[in-house]
Every structure is written in C-alpha cells, then in structure tokens.
Amino acid sequence: MNLDELKAARSRKKLKPLPIPDKELCDRYMEVFTAAVNDVLREKGLLHQTLPSGIAPLQDDMKLCGIAFTVKGSKNLTLESEMEQRAKMLEAIEEGAVVIWDTSGDDESAQWGEVMTMASQRRGCRGAVVDGGVRDTNKVLELGFPVFCKYRTSNGMLGRFRMIDWQIPVMIGNVFIYPGDLIFADIDGVIVVPREMAYDVLLKAEYIKENEKEIKQMILDGLTPTEVVQKGGYF
Ligand SMILES: O=C([O-])CC(=O)C(=O)O
Ligand SMILES: [Mg+2]
C-alpha cells in the first residue's frame, strides 16, 4: 500500500497562486450566479459540488464568495480550553476568507453567533457557511454578514459541541472542501469550486451569463422554445 499521494493531498500546504489575485477572482464571481458556475462544473463532469440543499442563506438576498477557511467539529461534552481554542481559530482567519464548518452532521448547537461574526469581520472575513446552526440571528443580520446554515437555535456550542481542528480537508454532504477552495453561495445554495480550476470556471461562467442574455432576448422576441433550441439556445 502506498498512501503518499493521498497523504500529500490531505496535508496542510501553502495555497497556489491563481492567474489573478484572490480578491479580484472573488469580486468577479459576485457578478455571476451559482447556476452558471454549476453548469460549468457539470461540463467538467463534476456533479457533486453543491452542499446539501438544507444549507440556506439567513436572508434570500445574501450572496457570498471567498476562500475556504475550513473548521471541523463534532458533538462533545468537554469544555476544557474550549474558548481559548476557539479564539485561536478566529485569530487564524485571513482577509477574504469564508469560514466553512463541517459539524459531523450536528443538529442542535450553534457554531456561529454575533461575537464570532464581529471578530471575524475585523479580520476581513466575507461570511460563514455552517452545516449546523447560528444564534444571535438578528444581531448577525444587523452586522450585514452573510451566513448560510441549516438551522437557527439559542443553543451555544459550549458544553455540547466543540471544534476538532481548522484548515484541514473537510466533507459536507458528498463534497470535499480543501482550505483555499472557492466558496460561492447565493439564494440557490452553496457551491464549492476546487481551487485549481476556479479561474477557468469563472471565465466560462461569465460567458454563460452573457450568452443567456441572447437566449432570453429570443424568448422576449416571441420565439417558441423549439425555435430557441434550433438556434442553439438552452435553458
Ligand atoms: O458561542 C456561541 O455559540 C457563539 C456566540 O454566541 C457568539 O459568537 O456570539
Ligand atoms: Mg453570542
């Protein structure tokens, strides 16, 4: 058995630079939409890059793009040094990050709240995606911080759930998420774009957005769906 390749893939490493700076990349993703990005990934044979559909924005108009800062945790009754550990995690967040929580399928605790929002915003964090819960919801909304999560609850995680590690590969639903991947989310849910293809996928999604304008114009001009398809359109 030779696990060297797998070990290397799962190890912590420095992020590879992309053809354009990460900030420009994320700002350009914000001008497209998840369905277009999803169609590009489908062309590449990647059918399982969307997080489970139960992970939804706190508000319909929330949209988010940033670089995955992964966090992994699970139900756990111990409290020793929990706050210190959580503080260290928050202090490791970098500008342009999206905090993304693999909770091992938790269904009762909040992995995100008001103070964590404030602390991460100060570090330039763009939002949070939680396969779990959020609390202090009205305060998080007032702070204008996009959060995508499964549920809302008053249950703080302390004494119920705790972090295992951060900036490690994680898995939510069927989706692998590596630190540095691109996280893109809007009203249609959350999509994970592997880092190495993030720029190429953006270019193709921008093309789809432009091309769809022509298709929609055909409908406005009175063409039937059959005529649209005959002219190379799709929907
Ligand atoms: O400890 C928590 O559950 C999170 C929290 O309330 C906060 O960040 O304000
Ligand atoms: Mg709180």
Structure description:
Helix content is 34%, strand content 25%. The chain is an alpha/beta fold. Strands 1, 2, 3, 4, 5, 6, 7, 10 and 11 form a nine-stranded mixed sheet that branches. Strand 10 (182-186) and strand 11 (189-193) form a beta hairpin. Helix 3 crosses helix 7 (198-220). Residues 113-115, 136 line the site of magnesium ion. It holds the Pfam family RraA-like.
The secondary structure category is alpha/beta
The tally of strands reads 11
* Helix fraction bin: 25-40%
DSSP summary: helix tally: 8
Oligomeric state as shown: single chain
**Judging from the principal axes of the Cα atoms, what is the shape?**
globular
Q: How confident overall, as mean pLDDT?
A: 97
SSE topology string: HHHEEHEEHEHEEEEEEHH
* Distinct ligands, ions and cofactors found in the model: oxaloacetate ion, magnesium ion
Strand content: 25-35%
The biggest sheet amounts to: 9 strands, mixed
Low-confidence sequence ranges: none
- How much is the radius of gyration in Å? 19 Å
> N- to C-terminal separation?
47 Å
EC number: 4.1.1.112, 4.1.3.17
Protein name: Putative 4-hydroxy-4-methyl-2-oxoglutarate aldolase
Family: Belongs to the class II aldolase/RraA-like family.
Enzyme class: lyase
